[in-house]
Batch of 3 targets.
Target 1
Amino acid sequence: MRLGKEQGVILITTLWILMILSVIALGFSIELQLEARMSRTQLDTHQAYYLARAGVIRTLVELKNDAILDHRTRNAIYDAPGDCWANNEETEKIYKDIPLGEGTYTVVIQDELGKMNINKATVKMFEGLFQALDYKEDDAKYFATAIVDYRDGDSDYNQDSSYTEEEFYYGSKDTTLAKEHFKNEDFVSPVELLNVPGFKPEMLYEPRGIYGNPDLKVSLIDLLTVEGDGMTNVNTAPLPVLTAMILSMVDEDVENAISIAQNLNDRILGSDGEPGTSDDKPFTNAGEVATELGPINPLLGARLSRTVRTDSNLFRIQSTGQIGKAKTTVEALVKREWVVTLLTSEEMEMMENQFKGAKEGVRVQILKWQEF
């Protein structure tokens, strides 16, 4: 009887030991699986990063190709939505979900000079931009004034010099606090608008319908830049930016300004509204803008032609690499320029002076780089 009890205890103990070992083995197995998944995710993320970089490199090639084609085949140099560097139906095959290795990359490129420069824009331009995005007139005026007050070097409230910025925006009589709230210097990024009194993240990032075109939505962040000299490429400027420029120059209501901007856009993209098709007619020089608007509003045409350009040398490239569920996005601000270099005497001798002492080419520099 005693032997039977001892055998029962041994059996139970053995079963417990087996169960404990099974739990430990299961724990090790789960841990190994998690480590394997983490390693795979890290590897995929690393590969996605290089896929994103590949997208940037491909876009640099297209920017160079475009400049070479411009100089060899066009009488005037201009940049438009139908060019080989831009996102359009023709370039989807080189920019959208492009397979490479085990993953893909997708590129979105923007002409940085088609945007509104927030360090150069006036109160009237900002007010026009907010009105074009269907803000109420009072709100448009408030935010336009607040942005310029935040940026400019004085402490006056732009709508009424009897107020200081501090008094108006914060109801405080202690104007020594102005430096705490107002930068009084140029913005270094459109994201800095979030420091402006009353500005909220959704105003900057959430897509908003255009006045009279609620289905045509755009995010404010995609319309703004701190780059360039304030001259806007009329060929690539979005509808709200063109509208803002028009409203800042002539006494028009928003509806008429949108209509004029749409007419300019229709000429650039053609009757089908699609870039890169045979009916496109982009502006080749600023003088053509005055000619186009002359029959409608000669004063506006003359003023607008002095503040626009038709080419660009600054572009923002956003490239996203994806492999499996891993995604990595990189963003590059690049400068493109056509350069002429004098040949050395040795180079001239080698080339038998066929280039008359000079060689030409395209140089593309990465000015800023971000990883997300």
Note: The chain has two domains: 44-113+312-371, 115-309.
Target 2
Amino acid sequence: MTKTLITAALVATACAFSTLAHADEAAAHSRVTLNLSGEGPMQAGSLGLNFQMIDTTTNSPVTEDNLAVLHEKKLHLFLFDPSLQEFRHEHPVFDSSSSTWHVSSTLNTSGNYWVWVQGELADTQQEFTASSRLDIEGGDPALPPASFLGDVRTGVDGISQVTVSNNKITAAHMTMLTVTMSRTDGSQPDLAPYLGAPAHVVAVPIDGSSLIHVHPMAMGGANSTQMMLHTEFPNPGDYRLWVQFLDGGILRTVPLSVTVLR
């Protein structure tokens, strides 16, 4: 079941939203289910993944026409492994001849990956998420599942750096976090919108069984390097955050982690 987390600030800002889905609830109540094509594991490296999404109210495939545009794309797909170190954010395309969706990606590390899709149904304007698992073999050895992440609120990708404010985060309470972009060499970040938002933040608990996708709001003027993130973490524990944004025209993906208290 998808739960959309909204604050007044998010309603007032079209670029900000968040979606939360629990895997067990999704299996029981979600209108959309995700079915991967083929049987058995896929080989590591460049791969093509085919899948169908089924609307359980009509028992029919979800097509491109059934979806509204959500942040410049009809569908968002997220791949990550149990170690929470490998992460991909892709955008599938629809093949009307087979009523299937296709996405290309590169996964060089073996493992039992989570596959999450996110979109918005055109008829109800309701966001949905659905998940499945994908075995990858023949690549670098699978990394052990994450058992501890800790509160690590600064991360780096290349020279791009992200720092999240040290606010206490309490489960099931709306949290406001300041997100600051900088560079390790002291130069000024050259930020630009990515898929219609200043940045994209994906957060998952340590077991990977739910997904939060939220877009922070820019603070200050056009050249501001600070953003405000509004979201809610449903349960206590460690969460992996991946912050994606454009710096100098290069897409950066910065890993962080936060500890959510009871």
Note: Confidence is low (pLDDT under 50) at residues 1-29.
Target 3
Amino acid sequence: MLERAWWHPVADAAALGDAPQAVTLLGEELVLWRDHAGQPRAFADRCPHRGTRLSLGRVCEGRLECAYHGWQFGPDGGCAHVPASPGFVPPASHRATPSAACIAYGLIWVRLDAAGRNAPPPFHAETDPRLRKLLVGPYDVATSAPRIVENFLDMAHFGFVHEGVLGDRAHTAVPAYEVQLDANGLRATGCMAWQPRSHSQATQGSWVAYDYAVPAPYTALLSKAATDAGRRDTIALFVCPIEPERSRVWFRLALCDFESSDEALRAFQDQIFLQDRPVLESQTPKRLPLTAGEMHSAADRACAAYRRWLLDLKIGFGTV
């Protein structure tokens, strides 16, 4: 499964404390924990001794300890201690199954295959000191990760799903824009949308210039500027593909707005996404059709290109 070679977000980094945490990625059950240096580690959530969930255990002196018999596993997955046989030196075969893990953009990311992408998808706005960073979510959604990414790219629904906020019924036309596919993924540039309230502090409608990028199958970036204010905010959509038809979503905001409270910014993002969620969960099939079964118009060129790209990448998790 090619999706295993990509990095995927699985948890809020700030939420992983001293206790192990169970997560699911691409249908596989994992346990997250922090080693003695505070670095995140990800193992298959199964003790190799008797198959107990390692997430039921605890972290003891920089090792993950199984709740059943107390076997302890080091950061590389190797068994370091068997309490019932204290003189026993476990061989290399006595080990948990580790996956690569790291922290980026306030999230813990995991790559299931030992070989694959070197790092999580780029989000360059993260290092811009002129922008305020805030993580929003998670939102659990009963649909596939590709359906969620495609919805993020779709401007034609603004006047209906987000009427009075991101769009209105008097301005539903989607002007022509450019789409490019290359080794770095998908880009849609020159997009324009009329928005009654394009950001949390907006008090009147304006035309907003949008640029989209999709650097990874389940990640999308939006950079937008309201023409009346010269604002340029960047929003990253990070989706964890839990199961083929079950996903978890975070937004990483990089904003010009340093005045609004965290609570106000989160409430605004909640308002938008919670309008999207029932629509997303109503779509059938829940897995994104890549070749047939749904129709397109000229306004859907970014979504159609996204489907072609997934097909070229042979992404099968969450597609049909």
Note: The longest helix spans residues 262-282.
